[in-house]
């Protein structure tokens, strides 16, 4: 008879907290779309990335001081430095720049390869399992993300430079997530996020002159949106992301971000007055359906581990070494 492997009450609570943290992350990252539309008209890609990271690092630094988090242990610094360079620094500049060069459909096609790359790198470097439901869900969500992007495209064109920048952004995003995962084994999510954001801000310091010059000419609304990007989609959302990532696999977390395009459609409708068409709505539904499939478990996995199967880490096990 197969042993009962149902999660304990504490394990179920940890699982719910991780799911809630992932939901906060996705909602705030989707909201960044609206703010970037405003701030991006007044700030160049590098200046916008630096301003966002400085606001995020300042917010996180204050929280760390209040919580007396201290400096991460030496064992975590490699992952923090790599994620800071790749994800907080290079990714933000490349994405801001690339999306100015290509239409929304091309950006959706290229940038949304990121979660797929995370799954491949996670399986190769971290030993993450790749169950069929995860792969199927990611395929459905990717199709939905591309559908949303194509349906929302204007008459803009695409340049080779823009495609390359979006592809580099996707690779940097995937590499940053996979590098961040091991660091969460010895440092807290707040430490990993704070010092990763600081590394990214240092990398973007060459854009300080542009930031100062453009801030003097930018309207107040653009600057406020830049500050919002730093405090909420960066400081808060990256921390809740790290918290959830410390309690599940990189592959499953990457698949969860496919809910963002559907939320972008809703927020664009509510805040920008952009009424979605039928194709856009279909794409949004596909994104959410794919996320639901990728995060679901088979009946066998729900009852216990089938013979020969590789179980996913339970939340209480994945978070044992996280402070």
From TrEMBL:
The keyword Transmembrane helix applies. Residues 302-323 are annotated as: Disordered. Pfam families: EamA (PF00892). Gene3D superfamilies: 1.10.3730.20. GO terms for cellular component: membrane. Residues 21-148, 161-293 form the EamA domain. The chain crosses the membrane at residues 42-66, 78-98, 104-127, 134-153, 159-178, 190-212, 224-243, 278-294. The keyword Transmembrane helix applies. Keywords: Membrane, Transmembrane, Transmembrane helix. Residues 313-323 have a biased composition (Basic and acidic residues). PANTHER family: EAMA DOMAIN-CONTAINING PROTEIN, TRANSPORTER, DRUG/METABOLITE EXPORTER FAMILY. Belongs to the EamA transporter family. This is Drug/metabolite transporter (DMT)-like permease. It comes from Streptomyces collinus.
């Amino acid at each position: 008879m197969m042993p009962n492997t149902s999660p304990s009450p504490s394990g179920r609570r940890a699982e719910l907290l991780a799911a809630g943290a992932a939901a906060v992350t996705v909602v705030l990252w989707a909201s960044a779309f609206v703010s970037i539309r405003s701030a991006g008209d007044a700030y160049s890609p590098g200046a916008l990335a630096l301003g966002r990271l400085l606001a995020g690092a300042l917010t996180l630094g204050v929280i760390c001081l209040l919580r007396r988090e201290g400096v991460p242990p030496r064992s975590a610094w490699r992952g923090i430095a790599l994620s800071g360079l790749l994800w907080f620094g290079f990714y933000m500049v490349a994405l801001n720049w690339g999306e100015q060069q290509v239409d929304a459909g091309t950006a959706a096609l290229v940038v949304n390869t990121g979660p797929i790359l995370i799954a491949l790198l996670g399986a190769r470097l971290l030993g993450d399992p790749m169950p069929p439901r995860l792969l199927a869900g990611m395929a459905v969500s990717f199709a939905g993300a591309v559908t949303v992007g194509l349906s929302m495209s204007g008459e803009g064109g695409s340049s080779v430079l823009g495609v390359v920048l979006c592809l580099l952004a996707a690779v940097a995003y995937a590499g940053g997530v996979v590098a961040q995962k091991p660091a969460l084994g010895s440092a807290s999510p707040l430490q990993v996020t704070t010092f990763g954001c600081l590394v990214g801000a240092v990398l973007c310091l060459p854009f300080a002159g542009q930031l100062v010059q453009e801030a003097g000419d930018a309207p107040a609304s653009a600057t406020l949106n830049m500050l919002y990007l730093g405090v909420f989609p960066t400081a808060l959302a990256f921390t809740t992301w790290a918290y959830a990532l410390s309690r599940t696999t990189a592959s499953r977390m990457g698949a969860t971000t496919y809910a963002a395009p559907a939320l972008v459609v809703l927020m664009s409708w509510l805040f920008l007055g952009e009424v979605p068409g039928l194709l856009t709505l279909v794409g949004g539904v596909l994104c959410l359906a794919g996320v639901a499939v990728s995060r679901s478990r088979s009946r066998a996995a729900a009852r216990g581990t089938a013979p020969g199967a590789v179980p996913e880490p339970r939340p209480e096990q994945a978070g044992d070494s996280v402070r």
